[in-house]
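To fix ideas at the outset, we first show an illustrative case, written as a sequence plus integers encoding its fold:
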Amino acid sequence: MRAEVVGILCLISVVTALDFKYHHAEELEAYLKSVHAAYPSLTHLHSIGRSVEGRNLWVLVLGRFPTHHKIGIPEFKYVANMHGDETVGREVLLHLIDFLVTSYRRDPVITRLLNNTRIHIMPTMNPDGFEATKVPDCYYTRGRYNKNGEDLNRNFPDAFENNNASIQPETQAVMNWIKNETFVLSANLHGGALVASYTFDNGNAVTGTSKGYSRSPDDDVFIHLAKTYSFNHASMYKGTGCDSRQTFPEGITNGYSWYQLEGGMQDYNYVWGQCFEITLELSCCKYPPADQLEKFWRDNKVALIEYMKQVHLGVKGQVTDKNGDPIPNAIVEAKGRPHVCPYRTNEHGEYFLLLLPGTYVINATVPGFKSMLKTVEITDNTGNFSALQQDFSFSEVSIRSTAASCPKTPLYQELDRASAAVKPTVHILVLMTVMLAIFK
């Protein structure tokens, strides 16, 4: 009885501690630590690195198995405050944390979401920029950048051109984080507009930029993801934007169609992290008054939850050898959707492919052995919190696939050069040739 009373008191203290106001570094850290203390079996708090000024880059992980990856359970992440003066996402994610932990075992949807998903939440990627923003402004401050004056959303390796920017500590920490986890779906929260923007942000002739659009092999999935957020948001779906000069039909846009961006995080996630990420612009004013934060939370609450469910789209499974042991680094792709950096199984032999309902041929390849093809019929399983399960067993394989990774070079630039030399241009064949050259 006494333990239950203590638990209730802890719960009350966490709920009452989170006001609708801006939480600076010390307050944010204290809140995250208090949540973990109150819910130690549901959460895991860790720092993935430090900012230029030495502030921790905190991530709170939530789920039934918060401390480690569990086979079959996909990894999801939200990242906010990449630009230090774009502040709404930072506070919205704190309230999302509060909602998730207090709803677990009370709300059946949230309970199933947390039981079947490992959710990573980073309220601020640029704590130095936030603290440097002394005078809030709706349009621009130097706090956008990190302490070294670098724009972190122009700081990642780029798949289309050489990015000569020096990789910052915050960027490197996120790159390492992506490498160490099996992220499947992500969103990056910004401010300054009201729209869901999707890959690609950069592009070339291979991705169709001559038509003002940079199309990924999974363009249909990205449109669906962007619409999922937009149509579950209070007003984003209306597409009115922030003024009459800028409208976004259905509240979504292809990143390149909006404006070309080199070194962005969402393209990096998709190409090198095997993770579908979209960018969510949540407020016309970058740093709005604190008394508007409660409305921003209400406007985004349903969309944040519905978007997380999409991590269960498509198909997942394991690739094993004749002994039933997992085969890491096997290539698993849906036929007709080749990625310039092929999607591979993790150390557990797992793969996750986000696909819309339909019929697909899944191709599993262990280098040096014959490919295995399986036809799957995918339905919308997001409501069941589990993608379709399709495993592959290579009876002739008894060795582990060697480690492989794509170089952090402009892979699409190489593809463009190769395709330009082929007449007539056949992009799929050229893509296969380039991939063979990369991994031979």
DSSP finds twelve helices and 15 strands in the chain.
